[in-house]
């Protein structure tokens, strides 16, 4: 088995070891590349993905180490971009990535310990991500005030600059000393101790004192699988996150022409104005749908074919609008309407109550047969066609199934010209 040098010195950047084996990468996973190699050493400072912490990267001789993982039979596997000869090799860790992981992992110990000590909330799991880290906490609820108190406690411990040490113990001896931490029986475990404050079994890499964490910022809180997931950042990540958040707030104050202190009030004012505008738009939309439906009914009556379905394509309207128009149309007894929107290929099939056709069945028959999708009720169904260029053909086909044309090849399809509709005098829409 591989001797894990990071257990004793997490800051070890360079080391000497012996290559025991080097074989081509195997397996069927998406991360496995045929031109990569799996290398095992007698000793290593590379941390393998484990315990929620990602792997280290760096080099072994001239080979780049792109991944590190644990294998039950071979120990620690180093994935390299080229083969290595058996024998001595010089290893180097990419320390910027390593130290970032050390800060985040040690920070998680502080956050977990603070929630347990202050509010009796145990940590269920930890994940160290590329930009943020998370812990899952078992708790019925977590308030913003509790998060604030924990954040203050963690940063107080950081300012205390407490010494952090690692020791090896037997799990049986830990059962009594650390009752809040589950440990497998009959195993040798590594314990991380924050001087005079907290002890946790852990195999990860850690800083040497709490001061090296720098700062901890607790951020987003969300429900996750019956627990609470808390997002946090430490050290350099916290600095970058604070700078990024400040830039966003600064840009918001610039666009809203307000101070930092007045930003919440300014946002509330903008939201209120938006909501008022949306309500006006909704009223105008409904009025326009009423007028559009009335216009279509008037145009239909002028053809002398009131009993025929209304077939109409709008150039640039969404499904909600054409649905509104359809609902207005079928308030007139005996009306059947097949409407479409060319911009997205959306269709609405509708009929007034009491008519014999089944709009749901008709929509599925016409639209699904052309590769689209849709469905609804007997009176109203909606769908979207695969190719909007087929709208005319499909709507005419639906019309033919409900009311065949008296003359072969005759089409009753009308296409809306939106600008012309807007310019049309209102009296023509109401038949005056």
Characterization of this structure:
The chain has ten helices and 21 strands. With 432 residues, the chain is α+β, with helices and mostly antiparallel strands. The chain folds into three domains: 91 residues, Elongation Factor Tu (Ef-tu), domain 3 (Beta Barrel), CATH 2.40.30.130; 155 residues, 2-Layer Sandwich (Threonyl-tRNA Synthetase, Chain A, domain 2), CATH 3.30.980.10; 150 residues, Diaminopimelate Epimerase, Chain A, domain 1, CATH 3.10.310.
Keywords:
36% helix, Threonyl-tRNA Synthetase, Chain A, domain 2, 6-stranded mixed beta sheet, 432 residues, 6-stranded antiparallel β-barrel, 3 domains, disordered C terminus, Elongation Factor Tu (Ef-tu), domain 3, Diaminopimelate Epimerase, Chain A, domain 1
Number of strands: 21
Unreliable stretches, pLDDT < 50, 5 or more residues?
406-411, 415-432
Judging by the overall fold, what is the CATH architecture of the largest domain? 2-Layer Sandwich
Helical/strand content category: alpha+beta
Beta-strand content: 25-35%
| Strand arrangement in the largest pleated sheet | 2-3-7-6-5-8
What does the average pLDDT come to?
87
Give the C-level CATH assignment of the largest domain: Alpha Beta
**Gyration radius over CA:** 34 Å
For the record, give the distance between the C-alpha atoms at the N and C termini, rounded to a whole number: 93 Å
> In total, how many domains does the architecture comprise?
3
Superfamily (CATH H level) name of the largest domain: Threonyl-trna Synthetase, Chain A, domain 2
Shape: elongated
- Named CATH topology of the largest domain: Threonyl-tRNA Synthetase, Chain A, domain 2
Give a short account of the largest sheet. Answer: 6 strands, antiparallel, barrel
Please estimate the helix content: 25-40%
